[in-house]
Amino acid sequence: FRLMSHVGEAPRILDVGCGPGMQTIELLRLCGGTVVALDLLPEMLARVQAAAEAAGVADSLSVIEQDMAALDFPPGSFDVVWCEGAIYLLGFEAGLRKLRPLVKPGGYVAVSEAVWLKPDAPDEAVEFWREYPEIDTVEAKLAVIERVGYELVDHFVFPPSAWTEHYYDPMERRIAEKAPVWQGNIEAEAVLDAARHEIDVFRRYGDCYGYAFFVIRNA
After folding, report:
1. Hey, is 134 helix, strand or coil?
2. Which of 12, 75, 110, 207 is deepest in the core (most CB within 10 A)?
3. How far apart are CA 81 and CA 100, in angstroms?
């Protein structure tokens, strides 16, 4: 957020595909303005609202239940559009094109996206990511950003700890909790096996891929 040096003192921010809202609460604490948290799942919005109330920042939060593929806001409604861990639902280039009209001229878009960190990833890692064919190198994503018409402010790759501390460690705890309960349930056990496989792939090949975060400006 601090990379957005021209955002103003009380920005209006849209958090698209907010999920449980860890980043939403941080934005509320940092921005000095208002945040609109948008997600298709009402249970996620309820978690965001509860977290904002617990943090004492709920007065600056609005929640909207809406599909990010059908965003319904007038052009230039926001100083910042934030999309952390969700733009893959639209596709990177399609998502950037969809978000751009919502941002005021000179405003910012912040997105995270899966990227390859090494040119020749092992076959098992490539196979794991086959379901998301848009994964590509950071350089390829920067080319997309330029093609869509944004100005790059900065970008960085999340450290491995961002995956483990905030995602895989909690996932492992949930697996341990659910495994005895779901024993014998074929469909549920398949879900747990898929989660275990994801963790295993990351532990072995996590140096080959990651998430990059891009701060870009509607020039």
Report:
1. coil
2. 110
3. 9
Which CA distances in Å does 56 have to 53, 60, 176, 184, 203? Answer: 5, 9, 33, 44, 37
Residue extents of the structural domains in the chain: 12-158+208-217, 161-204
DSSP assigned state of 140: H
- How far is residue 210's CA from residue 157's CA, in Å, rounded to a whole number? 7
CATH architecture of 12-158+208-217: 3-Layer(aba) Sandwich (3.40)
Q: Round the CA-based radius of gyration of the chain to a whole number and report it.
A: 18
Task: Give the Cα separation of 137 and 198 in Å (integer).
Answer: 20
Mean pLDDT, the chain cut into blocks of 10 residues (219 residues total):
76 96 94 95 96 97 96 96 95 97 96 95 94 95 97 95 90 94 93 95 95 95
Helix (H) or strand (E) holding 111: strand 103-116
Q: Both tokens of residue 9?
A: 């003192």
**Could you tell me which residues come within 8 angstroms of residue 138 by beta carbon, excluding any fewer than 6 positions away?**
115, 117, 155, 157, 212
In this prediction, residue 7 carries a pLDDT of 79
